[in-house]
Every structure is written in structure tokens, then in C-alpha cells.
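Kindly review this protein for my students:
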Amino acid sequence: MNRISRNQIFFIVAVIALAAISVQFGLLHTRDGMMLSMAGVLSNQGARMIDPILTNVAQGYRNAEHVGHYLFPHVPVQVSGGQIIEFGKEAFYKYNLRRVPGGQVKRLQFGYLGKPYALVQDSAEGQVPREHIRDASIVPGVNLGTRSVNTVMKVMMTSLEYDQAALATNAANYDANHKVTLAGGTKWSAATGTPTADIDAGREAIRASTGVYPNVALLSALGFKSAINNANVTDRFKYTSAQSITEEMLARLWNIDKVIVGKCITMTEAGVASDIWGNNVVLAYVNLGSENMEEPSYGYTYTMEGNPIVEETYWDNGTKSWVYPVNYERAAVLSGITSGYLIQNPN
């Protein structure tokens, strides 16, 4: 038998060590796609092969047309169903935290388990036909994959925008003190309409219920058009600016941190278009810039941790195409409706 060289011994040891590390950290895959990990062996049912690069593309997708996240910021959850953490006035109270020697420490618990929620799973696949690839024998590059995933994400985010708008513009979700329906001469599109006074009424209704003013005003495209063309608004700017009235100008006029416009539309297969945000204005106090569902806020989008995800690309022989499966588990929820105010029919 031939003597084994020192280099061969080093090579064998390196292979064994690499295999051990792969098993420990879940990097070793068997032939049939089963994954080995510290927890043991996971079958194909329990583990999905994820494309990390394209998953980052999906999670980083942004579209200026989609504004629902300003009312329903995303927060991660680890289960697909449970109860919404809702908030009442107690989340906004000023408490006496002063403690006398030997006295009981004030214990605070904000929010309570309210209505149940269940995440919905949107699943769709992007497709890159063989004819779009220079070399049909290899998997498409990142650029083609990114374009395919972004196309799917635009559709998925439009679907989420529709769900968010349906919650925010449903008058049945608000009590009598937190909504108003304009008609006739009170509409902002009428010369006698008073957008600023209506916004002020909404701001005070939210402050009376929660102790804080709203920091977001979401206007539908129709509501925005009526506001910027109303004499009550234009007269406030005619001596200070010759520019068209913008969202930032309205924010300063109305003392609201963020004024945004919902411009997104949805279209039927017959080609009939409609505004997702309808003919409405929503004022809300929102926990912007945080991923903590325990913070008081008008609403949240509960999102399964790690979503959206892009699964491993595969070849579909029937369509002669590479396919990119995308999954997105989420649910928009109202968590503090007294921190919102709905104005219907401004136009």
C-alpha cells in the first residue's frame, strides 16, 4: 500500500473538520434536500431552501406609491395567529411614580390582548423565460432575478395597501366621536368647505381621547386635490408662496408631522381603475420608526419574522422558464383606534 503523504493527511483532516462545522451550523445538505442542523434532521416539510440575496431584495423593496405603512408600520411576530395588543387611554396617562420609603413600586402594563388576528400568506412566483437569457443553460443572474422579484413584490405590496386602506377607511371601525362624513357645502371641494377647521376638530378629538395629537395625516388623492384647491387653504399661502401647495406645506399649516397622499390605484381584469384610499382623510397617532408592538399606535402590520422570503429558484420545464417563488405572511391590524380620526367624502 502506498504511503500517505503529509499533504494528503492535511487534506483529509480539513475535509472532516469542514463537514463537522457544516453539520453543527446547518450548512450541510444531503442529496435529497434534507438539512442537518444542531437540532437534528429537518425534513423538506420543516425547512425551506431560502435564497438569501433575493430575500434581501424582497425585504428591501420600496415603492413611493405605497403609503399604508405610515399608518400600519411593520412589526415582526413569530406565530401566525394570536391576539392583537390593543391600547386604551391608559397607555397615554401621566402616572404618579413617586415612591415613599417602604411604599409599593408602581407597576405599569400597557396594552391588553384584544381581538384575534391571523396572518395571511400571499404567495406568487416570478418567471424568467429562457428566451430572456443569453445563456439558457445557466441560472439567471442577480439582475434578472431582482427584476422578477421586484415585479412580484409590487403586486404583493399593492395587495397589502388595499388591506390597510380597507381597515383605515371603514367608518364602522371608529366610534361616533372619531369620524365625520362631509356633505354638500361642508365638502372641501365646495367653496364653503373648511379643511383646516375639520383637521383641527380631528386633532382635538384624538388629543381628548389619548392626550397626544396625531402625527400623521393620510389624504387620498381626491382629498388632497380638494384640500389644495380650497380657498380656506390657498388664502393662507397666497402672500407667502407662489408654489403649488405641497404635503409639507399642509403639514406646517395643520401642525402635523407627516402629511402623505395615497395615490395608489387598483384595477380589475376588465381595466376598471379605482383609488385604493377612496375619498377619505385619516388622522392618526402612529408609532413611527419603531418595531415594538408594545408601543401605543393607531395600527401595525404584523409580519412573520424574516418575511417576505424568496425560496430557491427552480427550472420549470413546462414553460421553459426559471421560477422565483416569493412568500409574504402578514396582517394589518388596528391596535388603538381612539388614536385615529376619519373624515369621509372631502371631495
About this structure: Confidence is low (pLDDT under 50) at residues 18-47. Residues 1-47 form one domain. Helices lie at 6-24, 52-59, 142-168, 195-210, 221-228, 231-234, 247-254.
